[in-house]
Amino acid sequence: MSHRLPPLSALRAFEAAARLGRMTAAADELAVTPGAISRQVRQLEQHLGVALFDGSKARPTLTPAAHVLQPVLTTAFAHIADAVREVCDPGRGPLDVACFSTFTVKWLIPRLFDFQAQHPGIEVRLRTTDAGTGAGRMHGDLTITAEEATGAWDTSKEQRLFPEHLGPVLSPELAQQVALHQPADLADPALAPLRLHTRTRRNAWAMWGAAAGATVPLPVPTPSQAGPEFEHYYFTLEAAVRGLGIAVAPWHLVMDDVLAGRLVAPLGFVASGYDYVVRRRTSGPLPRLDVFCAWLQAQALANPVPPGPQGPPSG
C-alpha cells in the first residue's frame, strides 16, 4: 500500500527539535540554520494539518500530536542509522560498546588499554546502559549485559562471558572492628547502619542472602534496608573502600580491589544465578566485532577465581 508521507527533511527537523527541546539545538545537530528548522517544522505542520509546537520560540512546548509523533520518529531514525551502519564497510569506523556504568569503570576500562595496544586501528566508543538487565533495543554494535543463567544462548549473536558471584566486602580497617565469621552474622541489627545499598540494585542483599543460604548449611536472614543508599554501584563500592560500610558486590567489580588489599571478603562469594553476556548487533561477519568479542572472551577467562563461600566456624 502506498502512503503519502511528509518530506523526510521535515520529519528529521521536527524529530531533532522535539527531542532536543530547542530549534537552535536541532540546527546545530543537523548542521543547518535555526530558520531552516523552523521552516521545515511549519512545512510538516501544514502537511499534517496539526500544530506540533506551542509556546514561545525561546521555550517551545510539544503539543499532544507532537508527543505521539516524536518517539516513533526517533525510533525509526535510529533503525535507519543502524541499517546504514550495517551495510557500511565493517572494517572502518568506531566500535560502539554499551554496558553498565560500573562495569565500564571497574572492569572494562582498566583492561581496555590492552585491546588498544593490540588493535590500535579499532576505535572503541563506550556508552552506558543502566536501565536494567535484558536485551532491550540495541543502540550500538555490541552490548554487555546481565541475564538470568538459563544456558539457552543464540550463539550467532550472543556469548557468555562469566557467571556473576556476589559477596560482602569491606575495608580492612572496618573488618578489624566487625567480626564476620558466617553469613548469618550480617543479619545482626547492630550492623544495620553499616549495610550499604545501591538504588539501581536494591535486591543485592536479598540475592546474596538467598544464594548464601543455599550454599552453606545454615539459615541466612536477609538484612533489611537500614544503611545508606547510593545512586550507582560505583559509589557504593567507593564507600566500602573508604570504610563507610559493608557492600554486597559482584566479584568482577571488586576483584582488583580485593587483590590489591583495598577490600576484604571474609565470607567469600556465591553464584547469583546471573551470567554476563555479550550481545552483538548482527550475526553477520564483522571483523571489528569478531576481534573485540574474542578479546573480551580472553579477558573473561583471565579473571581470577573468586574465593568460595565461608560456612560457620568449626569447633
TrEMBL record:
Residues of the HTH lysR-type domain: 6-63
Query: What InterPro entries has UniProt attached to this entry?
Result: LysR-type_TF_proteobact-type (IPR058163), LysR_HTH_N (IPR000847), LysR_subst-bd (IPR005119), WH-like_DNA-bd_sf (IPR036388), WH_DNA-bd_sf (IPR036390)
- Keyword Transcription in record: yes
This protein's UniProt keywords: DNA-binding, Transcription, Transcription regulation
User: Which PANTHER family has this protein been placed in?
Assistant: HTH-TYPE TRANSCRIPTIONAL REGULATOR (PTHR30537), HTH-TYPE TRANSCRIPTIONAL REGULATOR TRPI (PTHR30537:SF74)
Record has Membrane as a keyword: no
Pfam families xref list: HTH_1, LysR_substrate
Q: Which family does it belong to?
A: Belongs to the LysR transcriptional regulatory family.
The record, for SUPFAM superfamilies, names:
Periplasmic binding protein-like II, Winged helix' DNA-binding domain
Give the species: Acidovorax facilis
Task: Output this protein's name.
Answer: LysR substrate-binding domain-containing protein
Residue ranges that the Swiss-Prot or TrEMBL entry lists as coiled coil: none
